[in-house]
Every structure is written in C-alpha cells, then in structure tokens.
Design a protein that fits this description.
The complex is a heterodimer of chains A (425) and B (447). Chain A is mainly beta and 425 residues long. Chain A is 3% helix and 49% strand. In chain A, the strands form ten sheets. In chain A, strands 1, 40, 41, 42 and 43 form a five-stranded antiparallel β-sheet that branches. In chain A, strand 15 and strand 16 form a beta hairpin. Chain A starts with 11 loop residues before the first strand and ends with a helix. In chain B, the strands form two sheets. A four-stranded parallel β-sheet of chain B has the order 2-1-3-4. In chain B, helix 2 (26-51) runs antiparallel to helix 8, helix 14 packs across helix 15 and helix 16 packs across helix 18 (339-349). Classes of the chains: A mainly beta (425), B mainly alpha (447).
C-alpha cells in the first residue's frame, strides 16, 4: 500500500513550526529536512559545548550526542541521524540510538518502505554492513558500493578479499576484490567490482567487474558474462524475466547489452542510467546520440529534443507510458516530458515526479535564490525561502507543498495541500 | 634511429616497466599497436608525427632539454622521434627493450606541459603524442609502478591515495572541529543538497595536507557562502589514470565526480589548487564521456579567490610582507589562461611581488606535472636534475629579493619543494590558500 494513503490530504495550509525561532533556543541550527508527509521539520542543533541533538517541530530530542550528521527521514517518516558518543558511532532513529556501537558508520540507505536501514560500518579497521543494526558475520579490509534488496532482506557490497600493500601492482592485477552478499563472498575475485544491483525478487546480484586491466563485463552471482567490453556501466535487472541489462561500449559506440549481447541497434556517444518502465515493457536510458548532445532514448529511439549540457533525474510514469527528466543547456535547467521541454528555465531543478494517474508532472525549482514548484509547466504563484520535493495525492487531485515561508525569525514551516485544479486553472 | 640506439644504458629500475615487460614479445607489441593506432590515433596522430620538420624550435621550450646540456634526446621532437616515429615507421614491430625505453621517455621525460606546442611553427602537440605512447604502454602493461598504483587506487576508491570512505568523512569532521576552535560556529557542511558550491579536492589533502581543507573552510565561512562537500566517493577531482593512459578509469572517476555534483544539486564545482585535476575535469575527463564542456561549471581556486577578492567577500587585514615570486602552473595558465587573475590575487594579498622570468604562459613547468612526480622515488633525481632551468628561475627571483614562491598547484608544490631542497635555494613555498588564510580578516564567529 502506498504510504501516502494515510496522510492528511484535506485541502488547506497548516503552520507546522516557527522555524525562525529555533536559533534563539540553540547555539546553532543546521539546514532543515521535511518529513515525507510534511508533518515534521527537523534539523541538527547544537545544544551545548560539544553537544548536539535534533530539533523536530521545535522540540529537541531528549538525548544529546557528541556529533550528529547525515540527518535524513526514512520513507516511512522515521527520522534518522548518524550519531557519536564518546568516540563511538551508531544510528539514532527518532532520538533513540541503536544498541550496537561502531568505530564508524556512514552511507545510510533505506528500502522503499523505510523499514530497513542499511549502513556501511568500520569496526577495528575492518569493514562490513549493518542492516537495522545487525552486522554481517564477516569483515573485510575495505568495502564499497553497498546495496540493499527491494524487500530489505539482503545486503551486498563490493569487498576487498586479498590483502596487498600499496605499490604491489601485480598482486592487485591478480584480482583482490569481489562481491559479498549478506557477508558471503562470491567464489571468484576480480580486479574491480563496482555498482551492484539486486534482482527484484532479491535472489540475484549483478555487478560491473573488471576481469583484467582492459576488459570489463557484468557478473551475476559471481558468474561473468562470456563477452567483455572496453568499458561498461552499472547493470539492472529486468523487472520480471531475470535478464540483466547494462550499457557498454561495443563496436561503433555505446549501446545496450542484455545478458552479454547487444539488444539495441543504435550506437551512441554515451548511454547510461538505464531504467525499466514499471510494467517492464520499456527500457529507457540517458543517451548522447552525438558527441555533446544529450537526451533520453526509449527502446533505442532517442527524442529529437537534445540538450548541450546534460540530462539527469529521469523517471517513468506509473502507467509506463511517459518519461520525464531534467535537461540542461548553458546552466539553464528545464523539465522535459516526453521529449517536450517546458518553456521556462531555472537555476536548478530537482527530480520531476509523476502523479499516480500519470497525467501530471511536478518538480521543485529554484530561480534567483527563491524556490517554488512547477506543475505541468505552470509555476505556483508564490515563491518561498525553501520548498521540498512536491508529492501528489494518491487520487492525483492534490499536491502537497512543504515550504519555509518568510525570513529571519519570522520564518515559518508550512504544509499545504493544494487542489491541482487551482494550480492548473 | 634503430631500436638498440634508443636503449639508455644507464636506465633506472622500475618494477612496473621491467616486470610488466617480461610477458611482452615483439608480436604482442605489434598486435596491440595495430589495434590502437588506427582506432585511437588516426589522422591527428599521423599529422603530429609526420609534419615535424625537425626545425628545433621546440627544443628551447623544453626544460628537460635545457637542463640536460641541450641533449637532443630530451628535445620534444627528439622524444617523438625516439618513440612514436619509430613505432609508426616499423608499424609497431619493435623490441621489448624499445618499448621499455619508450615508457620511460613518455612517462618520466615529458610533463605534457605543452610549452613546446606554443613555439612549434605548426602547433604540433607533442604532449598528445606522449600521452598516446603512455596509453600504448598502459595497454602493454608497462606503466611505471608508482603511477600505476595510483591508477589502481582511482579504480577502487575513486581517489588517488587509497583513502577509504570513512577516512574521508572523518577527515572533514576532524578539520571542522579543529577550525571551530578558531572560529565559533564554523561548519564544513557535508552532503548539503542545493548548496551553491561543491568544494572538491585531491587525495593528498585528506591524507597529507588536511590544513588546506581547514583553510578553505575558513575562507568559505568568512565569505558567507552556501557550500558543501560530499560524503561519498566522487569528492576527489584528481586523475592519474589520465596520465597512465587508462582512459576508461579516467572516465569512470570523472563520471562519479560530476554526478556527485549533480546529485547534490550544486551550481558550481570549486576545486582546490591543483593543475592536473583541472585538466581532467575541464578538458580530458569530461570529453571522454561525451560532455563537450564540464556539465557542472568548474572553477579553479585561482578564479574563485579572484572573484572573492574582487567582490570584497574576503578582506585582507594586512598583506603578506615577505617578497613573493609566482610560479604559473601549466594546466591552469597555458591550459586555461588564468595568469592575470593569478596576478590580481597575488597582488591583492602580498605587499611585494617579484616576477619570475619568463612568466605567465611562457613559464617553465615544475617538472613534476603530467604525472612525472607520481612515477615515484625511482625517478626523483632524474626529475629534479631535469629542471635546472626552474632552479635557475628560482635563484634569479631570489637574487631580486623573493623569499616565498607562490604555486597554486599540488604537483607544482611537490616538484618545486624537491628543486628548492636539492639546490639549497632557501625559499618558502606556499599555496594561495596558505597566504589568504594568513592575511585575511577572520571572524571570531560565524553564528
């Protein structure tokens, strides 16, 4: 069930917190974060000498820490921060620290439902993964590219499996890295293992690997594709049939590879960030049809509209029929939907989001230091000190606007549910 | 020139070259050469190599040539004739010893500084040719050991110093705490999405020169700027893979660097005082990925300090008193044309400036750049002795009163430090950030 079903979708504005007053209560207040449902605003605050806490809607957590960083709301609304106490680190969730403590902790990741919180951990100069505080049984000399499965049941990372000293280049080239899944290492080592992907059913893991200094491919559960490439990017699984896709440079340019064989005819100056539509029937990627020209290609067909700067933050609509992204020309950021760029450009645009019925697109934008939200190319009348990413209601009739209004000590955090018809007229 | 004549009898032992060459045969070399030369060299390479008329104008431009008794083997044209010209003439059928020597020439006798290209009547780019030779050596597995190790570090950690992910964040937090002792409320904002600037540095900063991060934090805070540093790999803008010719690892690291800036929704990347990293993110790395220009605007520290001083965002309490001379780093001066901005900054923060001669785009390289210093201890003295001309420049500046050399580049610092020490020049060496931090008006609190 969509988490947002339980949120308050009654039209109207609520003043949640007098954020501008917070600095009077604390030594300092760091940048704020709004909860997914908009009902909370939180920030790291300094409460005393070497003493930090988190303020939520004007009230600080009871517990204080030597340090708090990477404050983030999980998708389910719980508030997490990495905290330290007497030199040891752990995760605090809604003000309560995990019982487990570590020498260091970083790289917080959440599952989509927010129920699983995963972090990379350093313990005694050895590295491993913690999932909801539970540690792998195996530690490694180094770790990176951690990933969590969709259901949160499994975690994986690229790990160093053989020791070598700096300068031992030939030992390195024998292969000292692999992938560990739930702490268990694949049977084979590689020169490198990068960017991991879990299959949708959490059963398989794929990774980019380098089999020697010059040959790159994809390995699935430790088994490398027969074909190698001079360069390859991160893999993804098909939503249902188990096949693995990755962009790679093949004869004539970049293209899309499926299970070791080219599946697109087109050859591009670049292909990356491939993604499947929710129904699994369409595959899109950010591409450069020509050097220095960027756009989206859906099923190997690029849009005619290109951007000279770059394209980023692409997404499919829930019904799989539409694609939105951000395109940039000469520092001018635009939302582009189905190959049509909205006319107005901004100093910055955040990732566009589709409404559940796939009919509308909204994005947070910034211009001249002020923020607002644009829906289907239509900007809200007002701009704000800050806004957070907009959220559509489950019935696609409303838009949730989370904003800081006013300035200085008069700054107020508000949560407003706007009827879409009022925005679009 | 035959193969045998190209072999230096007094060669330095480098495990990367020697051990790497054990698996080579002339057939292997030729196969790799054939695959590479047309696919990657093409008309550009052929033009650069075959157009040269041996006029010798490039020779006087090269510090290695001038510092080695004008031995023609060290002239830019001579380096091409000892390497790529032979390879092309023999269609890649050369001996293993030849390739070992070619690796040495391309990686340790040329800084890719492009000074020679300015003096060539045809504009031939010897740096491009030497980089091509380096890439061939990479493909043959005979890159020098130390720089190869650095390329390996890039491949694993996305930084050049094997700095682990936790060590990086810990370094930032440590520097933030240290700086808070001096300036109340100072922050190094980590992972602040939507900041105006992402500040990026090179691997040696958290490893050996953490005070530079501290100083940058003081400058950003004093100027009241909205800035951030990433907590993830992608923070390092440096690139020794670019200099081994491992273009694939270069592309990988640059992609992450720029995508980190995009993820953080910053408008600009401000980079520390590094020259080669600028070349990588402003020219080679971005273009290898298909971005004609950096997708997120890149500003080198020279230009950034220029903007801050010009706009009055940082103010100078009292100018630096000792007389300074200016070393112009190749990649941001010849490569980007920042020499007048550099002078604006130096004059704004220093009372007395004594120019080095020649200067600006005509300045001599430090002999550390282009990855040469990264080839490590085996090559150190060859590098230092290969830049007597820079030692002379420094001596001359000193004789006119210069006590401090300002060099806004990490590799230049390494190279100049060795030259100053070896030649007992007795001169201080500073980054712009060192001096700005020393002479600026610093707030007691930024709360």
């Amino acid at each position: 069930m969509d988490i947002s079903n339980s949120w308050d979708w009654n039209a109207g504005k609520k003043e949640i917190a007098q954020f501008g007053n917070w600095p009077a209560s604390f030594d300092w207040v760091e940048e704020p974060y709004a909860s997914p449902d908009g009902e909370k605003i939180a920030a790291v605050v300094k409460t005393g000498e070497m003493e930090f806490s988190v303020c939520v809607n004007g009230t600080a957590w009871e517990n204080t820490f030597d340090k708090v960083w990477y404050l983030r709301f999980a998708p389910d609304g719980r508030l997490t921060g990495i905290v330290s106490d007497t030199g040891q680190w752990t995760m605090a969730v809604d003000g309560v620290a995990w019982e487990e403590q570590f020498d260091y902790l970083w790289d917080t990741q959440f599952t989509k439902d927010g129920q699983t919180i995963v972090c990379a951990v350093q313990q005694g100069m050895q590295y491993l993964i913690a999932s909801n505080g539970a540690l792998w049984e195996t530690k490694f000399a180094n770790i990176g590219h951690s990933a969590v499965s969709l259901d949160g049941s499994r975690t994986a990372a690229s790990v160093q499996t053989e020791s070598f000293n700096e300068g031992e280049i030939f030992k390195f080239q024998e292969g000292c890295y692999s992938v560990a899944v739930d702490g268990k290492v694949w049977d084979r080592n590689f020169i490198n293992a990068w960017r991991l992907a879990f299959s949708p059913d959490s059963q398989k893991v794929a990774a980019e690997v380098r089999v020697n200094l010059y040959e790159y491919t994809i390995a699935v559960d430790g088994q490398a594709w027969d074909t190698t490439y001079p360069i390859i990017w991160e893999p993804c699984f098909h939503p249902s049939d188990g096949s693995v896709f990755a962009p790679a440079k093949a004869d004539g340019g970049w293209t899309m590879i499926r299970d070791g064989k080219p599946c697109w005819n087109g050859r591009y100056a670049q292909v990356w960030h491939q993604m499947f539509s929710p129904d699994g029937n369409r595959l899109a990627a950010i591409v450069a049809p020509k050097y220095g020209k960027w756009t989206m290609a859906i099923d190997d067909t690029p849009w005619s509209r290109t951007f000279d700067g770059f394209v980023t933050d692409a997404c499919f609509s829930p019904d799989s029929s539409r694609v939105a992204c951000i395109g940039v020309n000469d520092k001018r950021y635009q939302v582009c939907v189905d190959g049509q760029a909205w006319s107005e450009g901004y100093d910055m645009v955040w990732a566009p989001v589709f409404s559940p019925d796939s009919q509308h697109v909204a994005a947070k934008v910034e211009k001249d230091g002020k923020y607002t939200v644009v829906v289907d190319g239509q900007k809200l009348k007002e701009s704000y000190t800050m806004v957070w990413d907009p959220v559509f209601s489950p019935d696609s009739q409303y838009l949730l606007l989370k904003a800081l209004e006013g300035s200085g000590s008069d700054t107020v955090y508000t949560r407003t549910v706007l009827p879409l018809k009022d925005i679009l007229g | 020139m035959n193969d045998e004549a190209a072999v230096d009898k007094n060669k330095i032992y480098d495990e990367g070259i020697e051990k790497g060459a054990e698996k080579l045969t002339p057939e292997i070399i030729q196969n790799v050469y054939r695959k590479m030369v047309d696919a990657e060299g093409g008309a550009r390479l052929k033009t650069y190599v075959e157009t040269c008329v041996s006029c010798g104008l490039c020779s006087e431009a090269c510090h290695f040539y001038l510092s080695n008794d004008k031995d023609p083997r060290f002239s830019p044209a001579g380096k091409v004739k000892q390497t790529m010209a032979v390879l092309m003439k023999k269609k890649g059928r050369v001996s293993v010893d030849f390739m070992k020597r070619a690796s040495e020439i391309a990686s340790t006798e040329c800084n890719l500084c492009k000074r020679c290209a300015m003096y060539c009547p045809f504009g031939l780019d010897v740096a491009y040719v030497m980089l091509f030779v380096r890439r061939l050596c990479h493909k043959l597995g005979i890159s020098p050991q130390y720089i190869q190790d650095t390329a390996h570090s890039h491949s694993v950690t996305y930084n050049q110093m094997w700095v682990k992910e936790d060590e990086w964040v810990d370094s930032l937090q440590w520097q933030e705490e240290e700086a808070q002792e001096e300036i109340e409320g100072l922050r190094i904002p980590i992972e602040k999405e939507g900041a105006d600037f992402m500040y990026s540095v090179i691997g040696p900063e958290p490893k050996f020169r953490a005070q530079l991060i501290y100083q940058a934090a003081v400058i950003f805070n004093a100027a009241g700027l909205n800035w951030t540093m990433p907590a993830t790999p992608g923070w390092d803008n440096s690139d020794m893979a670019m200099y081994t010719g491992d273009n694939e690892i270069m592309a990988r690291t640059k992609r992450l660097h720029f995508e980190t800036a995009m993820r953080l929704k910053v408008k600009r990347i401000v980079m520390g005082e590094c020259g080669h990293a600028f070349r990588s993110i402003y020219d080679m790395g971005n273009r290898a990925l298909g971005w004609r220009m950096p997708p997120v605007e890149v500003t080198h520290s020279i230009e950034f300090f220029y903007e801050l001083l010009k706009a009055g965002k940082i103010k100078i309490a009292q100018k630096y008193q000792p007389t300074v001379t200016i070393h112009d780093p190749c990649n941001v001066i010849r490569g980007r044309g920042l020499h007048e901005m550099l002078r604006y900054v130096v004059h704004a923060i220093c009372e007395n400036v004594e120019e080095m001669h020649p200067n600006r785009e005509h300045n001599f390289c430090c002999a550390a750049g282009g990855g040469v210093i990264n080839c490590g201890p085996p090559w150190k003295m060859k590098r230092v002795d290969g830049n007597k001309v820079k030692a002379q420049q420094l001596f001359d500046a000193k004789s006119r009163g210069a006590e401090t050399c300002v060099a806004p580049c990490h590799n230049c610092h390494g190279g100049l430090e060795d030259i100053i020490h070896h030649n007992e020049i007795g001169m201080d060496l500073k980054f712009l950030g060192d001096i700005i931090y020393e002479v600026m008006e610093k707030p007691e609190s930024v709360l």
